[in-house]
Write a structure and sequence with these properties.
binds magnesium ion, single chain, 13 helices, 21% strand, 372 residues, seven-stranded parallel sheet, alpha/beta, binds 2-succinylbenzoate, four-stranded antiparallel sheet
Amino acid sequence: MRIERLELALLKLPLVHFFETSFSRVHDKTFILVRVAGDGLVGYGECVADQDPYYSSETNDSAWHIIARFIAPRVIGHEFTHPRDLVAALASIRGHNMAKAAVEMAAWDLYARQQGLPLWRALGGVRDRIASGVSVGIQDSVDQLLAAVERELAAGYRRIKIKIKQGWDVGVVEAVRRRFGPVSLMVDANGAYRASDADHLAGLDAFALMMIEQPLDYDDILDHATLQRRLRTPICLDESIKSVNAAREALSLGACRIINIKPGRMGGFTESIRLHDLCAASGIPVWHGGMLESGIGRAANIHLSTLPNFTLPGDIAASKRYFSADLIDPPIEVASDGTIAVPAGPGLGVAIRQDRIDAATVTREVFDVAHA
Ligand code: OSB
Ligand code: MG
């Protein structure tokens, strides 16, 4: 495959409801959409970097800079036999996984379309429906949270994740359990706690949570290992796992019992598959995380979730939870049994609404062979 042209667009979409984590509250989703073209076909990759360096050190501006200045010249006009070959082509660029992933995932979409295969087949998936869970952000009141959880359970979602932070944790979980009983429930702290909060976090053990996601700092694998020995609740790492090497370290230290896979955080599908395989070989279940993606990035997540060791419901929910008009038609929908059908056409298998992309676009830049 040969990528002749790469386009970047910065898009801004309003969220139907604000989304609050321990690190910020956002009202819109602003992200880079990558489109690659070659041999008469196109492929799309959604970059999961944000406006601010709060979830990770990358931002839209840093990703744009790295793609324009370092990734595009290494990709455009080069011959690749397989999208996994982009990993080696980009290996001299340290970090910037979200920037790399956006281009690598676009190359996978292009490759799958060239092969006439749905992306999940190209990735090595084994199922045509995936189990869906929801991530419920921090609300202004416990009553509002309970109303949100009630709505999501009624919609059929297979597990509920609640965002927590200091002052919005044990009491909130207790309220949810009291109201809804033994539903599949987990929490995500996005690194809000310190090692010295271990006794407080052990208070969550009373609520039979499926897991606690990323309780401690994003780069702190060692203290997660200590905390995991103290907790009955399994720890799941998200922010800490930006490479297969980090996962090897976490697993060998016992820092977690579950891993969340986000291809943007890992630098693309190829590295995500390596992580998936490592976890499978180590008896560690994985699930697919979410970054409030548009339907384009969400479709990519659905395809990756078809690999065999994705045995827990992912943070991949219906389009309408996020956007009133998604960038794909039809939008992603969740059946009453809490599953999502994997798009069946070639590549991502979703129809792109170019009119909605155009309406949401703030800036664009095109790179082609002449620029490489
Ligand atoms: O930690 O999983 C996270 C959203 C933005 C940044 C980080 C996270 C999240 C979510 C939302 O939890 C998942 C979704 O896309 O619904
Ligand atoms: Mg998380």
